[in-house]
Write a structure and sequence with these properties.
Two copies of one chain form a homodimer. Chain A is an all-alpha fold. Chain A has helices at 2-45, 53-71, 76-80, 122-127, 133-149, 153-158, 160-192, 201-211, 217-226, 230-256, 269-303, 310-330, 335-353, 356-387, 395-423, 430-438, 444-451, 457-488, 496-506, 509-526, 533-536, 542-548, 551-558, 569-576. Chain A is globular. Chains A, B: It is found in: Cell membrane; Recycling endosome membrane.
Chain lengths: 577, 577
């Protein structure tokens, strides 16, 4: 009994100590972010556009990493000494997060394996290491939702065809090109005797998928300040938001590709088909879930008058969007992807139902969450360069990766732009294409995907190389955007009043079909805009239509002379855009 | 090797399953909150003030608890069957949160002990049970910060003396009275043979501390709508915000009281002194930390011009406030209490340095966080009545607790009001006193304190009883506020233009001293208001004063004719209020 009490007291004390240390680590990160914010302010105050806040956050993270690795000297025994009587239990794991998964500060499986060849401050470095799943379950969702929610709807939907081509076809091309180049590179390394472990073709394709996820943050921040051409902005933003989704689903499908004889790693048709099934299933499932959540929120905000109570409205909006993520995770679909589609749907339908106050509140809330999550990820990236203890830096692989990255991006942008220009009246100029090529920065998503699994030699090398690619692109490309844009002479121009009509007339038929459907059925159903459902739905559905048209709709719409049942696309576009 | 891979795969699958279940539980709670929001809207829409959203949240939680306990039938074997080969490892614990501590869904120590006499759906009920520390580290901090940040400064500081008396002296009196009454009640139970375990006098005092934490939410929401007298509002709000802090520190000091011979539980002078030391140390430490964080944020926002960038300003504000909590936890002081003082300081100094945009953003952000956290706690409370599997309901103890609660509150309010009225020119009328007596609802803090430790018989009985007290006070007192207020004839009155001067002249000397110090030194140092530091500081400090006076201060203050170095208190108050 007394012994049990003693053990309880000791384990209680240990839990307390772990909590104390966890809080101290969290204080470290909040101070890091605070410093980043103050420096960002200083840069903005002095109108210095050389370095974006993400670049700054990385630098500070890097500095802290250096200090922790080389500057602090702690006797490893000191920390655990008073508790050493129970120290042969599991290693002190510090767990965090909200949605239920185990998030250990300690990287799983590495503690006991590698204690021999650890860095000098292994204990401290382990304490500042998060479980990689924290990125997917806590930090990426608000970032991705924010990207979807802040897509400039008008320009996004006008360029939908091109955006989808770049994001879907382009990302697959890019992944494949990078995969092939890296396979050649790995073969070269193997011939040179540089390869220290297995590296299969699927690994190369996986690396291709990781590195194809571009991050628009830095470049778009500068675009915003410079007020760059809205169509270019929409293309770039739309592409990089959607290609994150494609990259994440693609990489998980490649992981799902397990040849029947797992030792051979030869091509297996059945496994390939299974992979393709996973890709399409997860993508369409996430799409269905995200849009369904958006539709439900839109309907609720339309049919109730929550707009009189902005706090309730904002809370509902937040909860519904968050539950999309949770629901997708509970169904074993990718929550991050579902959240993107949810964000786009919320922006397209729900946003117009919200009160002016809630519109502002929701935007600001997600802007804040996005800013904090992003700053945290980038500063953590900087820290990781020194705190991660199993880096594999190989000059040949790194050079190959940089080359592959450029080739992959080029194989995405230039051929697709050429093909798209055949159908577009508002052509994507070659200057635009160069900027899109240049603006292909790699950021939070590439990092999160690469840190997710660092158990094998191949994955460790990929992780280290991805880290370098992110640093390079954010600092060099991010810093170089302003000069490049002024060199390319791309500025804000008032061309869209002309383009909207010309584009509307010769847009591809699926896009036109979507526009008609959206304008005649979805918008009247989910928002207070568009022609009343009673006019657009067939006569047999009129009881349903009457039920779904709110009294507000009647009032608003009876004062307008809306086009009759089948509107012309050009008229719709003229009204919408 | 192959076996290791198999075990890895199985444990991976188990982690995935746990994550999936965790997400499903989170979906359940978001849907609960969404339903609460929609019903709240319906009530507000129909102007029904019978039930506050907290009361509603409890009802929904209760319903879900009933369904989970009696409505769902799951074969316990089904869940774990595919993984049963490793099921003799630790029980499936689902962990959550941000700041580092282990938050297990399973209540520690109860899983293996009590599997024999569990409720029908023990497995499911365990899954919806959170580690109680989640309340202290995730949910209470935003609620308490919000309380501090939204204290109406003007009326709060005008009634500071009374508020401090009620919160400090009153809470201690109330805890002691409740403790003594409960000790009598326990003696009676023991005589009747109703007592099923140990129940010491310290347990009674602990119960007194828990039950003395009043929650202003429901009553104040109604006060706000009815625009009740501002002084009464300030007294009630200030008291219930500060008495939370006192209750939390008091209860932890009682826990720290460990007589040297732990088996005897007789009075021990040394332990008593140690307890007192813990009480004063934690309280003053939290106060120092919270105000220091507020001062630093105020200085930073004053000296930089972050106000041009509301996003950065809001982020900084959020991070600094959060780091107060983390820092306090890292120093083993109570973070929740530190956060309260931080909130008050931020409201008093930093708030006036913020841009109009950030003022709005920070208020809205914490309003949202507070709303979500509070709705969650109250719905969880409802759920717990059925999901908690070790309730001890004893009619004698429950009746005694209700009686003790009223006596404790009465012993706090009436004698103190009598004493305070001797010194106040703006007397607290007997109607006011009755309302304060009536408005002593018990809410989130009482619940969180009682659920923190439910390992012994005494604590389980306290927890069950606290739950009933919360339900009763929220539903009956909360619902009855409107009729009581109209019966007591307490409405918004414009009396404070008269009271401010009369009160300023005969306020107690410590309050007057504080006012002078705050106005002459702190305000000029930390904000852009008040007389310039150069005038108020002694001549020897003028270099320092010049350094701390921003150019903006010079500009602003040179255009005003400020009173010379030593202002009269009455003048200061006339300027401030």
């Amino acid at each position: 009994m007394c012994r049990k009490w003693l053990v309880d007291a000791v384990s209680e004390r240990r839990a307390e100590e772990t909590h104390r240390q966890g809080s101290a680590v969290a204080v470290l990160f909040t101070l890091l972010l605070t410093t980043t914010i103050l420096t960002t302010w200083l840069f903005k105050h002095r109108r210095c556009r050389l370095l974006h806040e993400t670049g700054l956050a990385m630098i500070y993270g890097l500095l802290v990493g250096v200090v922790l690795r080389f500057g602090v000297h702690v006797q490893p025994d000191v920390i655990d000494a008073p508790l050493s009587c129970v120290s042969n239990s599991s290693p002190p794991a510090l767990l965090l997060n909200i949605s239920g998964r185990l998030y250990e500060y300690t990287l799983r499986g590495e503690v006991s394996d590698t204690q021999g060849q650890d860095a000098p401050n292994a204990e401290i470095l382990r304490k500042v290491t998060f479980d990689p799943e924290v990125f997917f379950n806590v930090l990426l969702p608000p970032i991705i939702f924010h990207a979807g929610y802040s897509l400039k709807r008008r320009h996004f939907f006008r360029n939908l065809g091109s955006i989808l081509s770049y994001a879907f076809v382009g990302t697959v091309i890019s992944s494949f090109v990078i995969g092939v180049v890296m396979y050649g590179c790995v073969a070269l390394m193997s011939a040179l005797g540089h390869l220290g472990g297995d590296f299969f073709f699927t690994d190369c394709l996986f690396f291709g998928a990781i590195i194809s996820a571009t991050d628009p943050v830095t470049v778009l921040a500068i675009f915003n300040e410079l007020r760059v051409d809205v169509d270019l902005y929409a293309l770039l933003f739309g592409e990089s938001a959607l290609n994150d989704a494609v990259a994440i689903v693609l990489s998980s499908s490649i992981v799902a590709y397990q040849p029947v004889s797992s030792s051979s790693h030869s091509f297996d048709g059945g496994a390939m088909l299974w992979s393709l099934g996973v890709f399409l299933g997860v993508l369409s499932g996430s799409f269905a879930l995200g849009t369904a959540a958006g539709f439900i929120t839109a309907l609720v905000t339309k049919l109730t008058r929550l707009r009189d109570f902005p706090l309730l409205e904002t809370s509902l909006f937040f909860l519904m969007s968050w539950s999309t993520f949770l629901f997708a995770e509970a169904c074993s679909i990718t929550g991050v992807v579902a959240v993107l589609f949810c964000g786009i749907t919320q922006a397209h339908y729900t946003h117009s139902n919200l009160s002016a106050e809630s519109k502002k509140r929701t935007r600001e809330l997600f802007e804040l969450l996005n800013f904090l999550a992003e700053s945290f990820i980038f500063s953590y990236m900087g820290l990781t360069l020194f705190s991660f203890q199993h880096h594999v830096f190989n000059p040949v692989f790194i050079s190959g990766a940089f080359l592959a990255m450029f080739l992959g991006r080029a194989a995405n942008i230039y051929p697709l732009s050429f093909l798209l220009n055949l159908g577009r009246s508002n052509r994507i100029s070659s200057n635009f294409q160069h900027v899109m090529m240049f603006a292909g920065l790699r950021g939070a998503m590439a990092f999160a995907l690469s840190i997710r699994d660092t158990s094998t030699y191949a994955r460790q090398m990929m992780f280290s190389t991805t880290l370098l690619i992110v640093f390079f692109t954010v600092w060099v490309f991010g810093g170089g955007t302003t000069p490049v844009l002024s060199y390319m002479n791309i500025r804000y121009t008032h061309i869209y009043t002309i383009t909207q009509i010309s584009y509307s007339q010769d847009s591809a038929w699926p896009i036109r079909l979507w526009y008609t459907f959206d304008h005649n059925y979805l918008k009247p159903l989910l928002t207070h805009s568009g022609p009343p459902l009673i006019k657009t739905l067939p006569a047999c559905c009129s009881p349903l239509a009457r039920c779904l048209t709110s009294s507000q709709d009647y009032q608003v719409k009876n004062t307008h002379l809306y086009p009759a049942r089948r509107c012309l696309v050009s008229e719709i576009l003229a009204l919408e855009l």
